[in-house]
Amino acid sequence: MELEGMEEFERELKQALERMPAPPGLKHRLMVKKQEQFAMRRRRVVWWQRLAVAAALICMLAGAWTWRNAEQRREGEEARRQVILALRITSRALNQMQSQLAAHNQDVQSQTRTGSLNEQE
Amino acid sequence: MASDWQPDFEALVDEHQSMVFSLAMRMTGDRGLAEEIAQDVFLELDKHLRRIESAEHARFWLRRVTMSRSADALRRRKVRGIPLWVRIEENQAVQVEEQSSPLGARLERLLSTLPEAQRAALVLRYQEDLTPEEIAAALGTPLATVKSHLQRGLMLLRAKAASHLKEYVRGT
């Protein structure tokens, strides 16, 4: 008796819980939303592409600027090295000249001294 | 495994919109929210369409995601502090008028007062005609728990029906 009652109740419940029809226009609204989401995704993709291009350009510019700076520094170092070399050569030449002048002055002084002694005799 | 089945989004919407909407509607008791859930579920399906292998897989996926989304929506409402059962009963009270059978309408209204887990099990059992094993798979719940929810839910619903719907029960 109890079992029959439960079966009857389950039958009633099954009838009560039949699927309801979807609201009219649900599919249309869904398709519109889908199109909107698709368009939004596309816009997002385009935005990311632009961002990637901008990032690549910035990287290229930064790379070029760094390379130019390094090149300028290298050229500066080279010029400095050449100037130091030139100064060393000049310094050496001046030293040689000074020592030659000093030797020449000594010769002149000793000749002058010998000449004056001869005149006194 | 190669399959001949080719998913067609529009055909899937046509075929399953009633099922998805009914599940969401019976779980939330709110027509607007149920439509919103149905739209979200189908948009999610569109994203996952490549992974759907068969018509049966699509049906299973839709049931599972609809129940999960409905549970999320109910949880969000609880967090916001809306007195859910009051709202469900208010909404149901308006919508049950659309039903052809008064007993069916009242049973449905009583169903909306059951705890969420029991309601979910009963809706899948009696709306979708699923076995306890299929319900367990759809809800991601152990089989024993589903059986317990079904049994307790049915007993509770019958007790409520006996106290609220005496004239109809006698009339059947």
Tell me what the structure shows.
The complex is a heterodimer of chains A (121) and B (172). By secondary structure, chain A is mostly helical. Chain A has helices spanning 2-16, 26-120. The termini of chain A are far apart. Chain B contains nine helices and no strands. Chain B has 172 residues and is mostly helical. The N and C termini of chain B lie far apart (51 Å). The radius of gyration of chain B is 17 Å and the shape is globular. In chain B, 77% of the residues lie in helices and 0% in strands. The longest helix of chain B is centred in the middle third of the chain and has 26 residues, at 55-80. Chain A binds chain B through residues 6, 8-10, 12-23, 26-27, 29-31, 33-34, 37, and chain B through 9-10, 13-14, 17-22, 25-26, 31, 35, 38-39, 42-43, 46, 99, 101, 103-105, 107-108, 111, 122-123, 126-127, 129, 154, 157-158, 161, 172.
Can you summarize this structure?
The complex is a heterodimer of chains A (121) and B (172). Chain A has 121 residues and is mainly α. Chain A contains two helices and no strands.
Sketch the topology of chain B as an H/E string, one letter per element: HHHHHHHHH
Q: Report, as a whole number of angstroms, the end-to-end distance of chain B.
A: 51 Å
Strand percentage of chain A lies at under 5%
Low-confidence stretches of chain A: none
Radius of gyration of chain A: 52 Å
How far is the N terminus from the C terminus of chain A? 171 Å
Number of strands of chain A: 0
Question: How large is the count of helical segments of chain B?
Answer: 9
List keywords for this structure.
heterodimer; A: about 120 residues; mainly alpha; rod-shaped; B: about 170 residues; 9 helices; globular; disordered C terminus
Topology at a glance:
The complex is a heterodimer of chains A (121) and B (172).
Chain A: H1 2-16, H2 26-120
Chain B: H1 9-28, H2 31-47, H3 55-80, H4 84-95, H5 102-111, H6 116-126, H7 132-139, H8 143-164, H9 166-171
Helix pairs in contact in B: 1-2, 1-3, 2-3, 6-8, 7-8
